[in-house]
Amino acid sequence: MRRATLLAALAALTLSGACAPSVPGSSSGTSGSQAPAASADRLTIGTTADVVNYNPLVGNSRTDSWVTDLMYPHLTQMDEAGKRIPYLATEWSYSEDGKTATATLRDDMKWTDGKPVTADDVAFTVNAVKKENFGVVAGLITALDKAEAVSPTEVRFHLTRPDGTFLDNVGFWLPVVPKHVFEKAPSVQKFANDSNWVSAGPFNLTKVERGQRYVMDRVADFGPGQPTIKQVVFRVFPDVNTEVLALRNGEIDLIGNVLPPATAAELKSDPKVKLQQIASLGWAHLQYNTKRKPMDDVRVRQALAHAVDYEAIRTIAMKGFAKSSNSSVLTPSQPAYMDPTSKEYTFDPELSKKLLAEAGVSNLTLGMIYDQADPNIARWAPMVRDSAKKAGITINLQGLERNTYVDKSLKSDFDIYAGSWAIMDNPPANLGLAFKSGGFINYGKVTDPKLDDLIDQSQRALSPAEAKAPIQQAARIIHDQVYDNVLYVETFNIAYSTGWTGFKPMPSELLSILNPLSLAAAKPAG
């Protein structure tokens, strides 16, 4: 998910094609052991999508995110472990009662027209998102009353209730835009921002050739540190196959999108290509519609959970580029919250049959929707169907076009939903969206007062240490009631030429090594 898209885009973004492609030239494209010579003049990145929106507050394609993240600063970034680190903000804290949050900004960042980036820009951006109620940030900052600039370098957020998730959410997800540019538009949400860009990142967009390339030039005197690279170019390709061929031929230096597991497995032996592996902050999962009979019975949901061969999915469909979450929504990628007592549902068709008998259910037939363009799910969806047959359960697969899939998901128009969350980086906030009664991405229509109360407790906590106990209890309920069936946490593979070094990875499909800190630090090897 990009950090400033619709809430529905928290579901994993897709790669091109319904199945993992073969690697072009895999039999002959590995001749020689040297990567093409890299130059600090230009880093060329392959993508399979054009920019759809240049407004960073509403963009919703991969390339939207990559381009605008290099132009518009966030208060914080994250390190390789997913921990928030300073970026535009140097410090952030809550008042003792938790109803006021404050961020202190660095004073050396400027917009490309020479004006300083100030607390006025931050307050304007946050207040505009709240007022117009759009994008992922609006769903994550519901506790906000208003933001105000106390000084050029201090912004204060007044909250209607204590919310320990607020600073993490607004810091990481909100791209800050220039007030003096965006305030001229009648609606910030509808502002196209498609020319004469005024930005404050390490690179600025200077040339667009739709369907071909997007050229970004280095910004001089960039506060956090001037990039080594003079120019970043995003080149548009029709699919992953042609991206791989271009990488091997030296036409591009990096493939932006995550590789399908089968492609990554084949590229392992190419001496001119390096694979950067990154653990996901999200997970792949199955959700069952708890408001449809017989899945309103926990025994039926448990039967479905015991009818999945998890290890086979990770080994065969994911080629080993996945690990178990122990059937918990608190995954190993979140060590501050992970519950070591959680155990993965066993693959046990006989137990499934027993549970169905106890629930008085026989000849169970269900439909399962999935995005037919997602190469990973397209590989393991048939495996879910086939393992369920061993438990006497019939699952009819419904591979759908992306927009239809998203529409059905949001309306909970399914028996079983197969999908994935791209970034679940803040458990108290994320579980509220996904499992609290009325949560925007509560696709399974979970309604559980005890769970709601625990999520509320975790959100009121002003530190991860305070939030840990209630959020772990919430995760146990989600596990035991099978409100979510987590299949695996993916290990992402990003491919780039061995002629480059210095990238700084982040645990996200979208940030990966294309984040601002990473591209500002990248340089030719040697």
UniProtKB/TrEMBL annotation:
GO terms for cellular component: ATP-binding cassette (ABC) transporter complex; periplasmic space. GO terms for molecular function: peptide transmembrane transporter activity. Residues 85-436 form the Solute-binding protein family domain. PROSITE patterns: PROKAR_LIPOPROTEIN (PS51257). Keywords: Signal, Transport. Residues 1-20 form the signal peptide. It comes from the Bacteria. One of its GO terms (biological process) is peptide transport. InterPro entries: Peptide/Ni-bd, SBP_5, SBP_5_dom. Belongs to the bacterial solute-binding protein 5 family. PANTHER family: OLIGOPEPTIDE-BINDING PROTEIN APPA (PTHR30290:SF9), PERIPLASMIC BINDING COMPONENT OF ABC TRANSPORTER (PTHR30290). This is Peptide/nickel transport system substrate-binding protein.
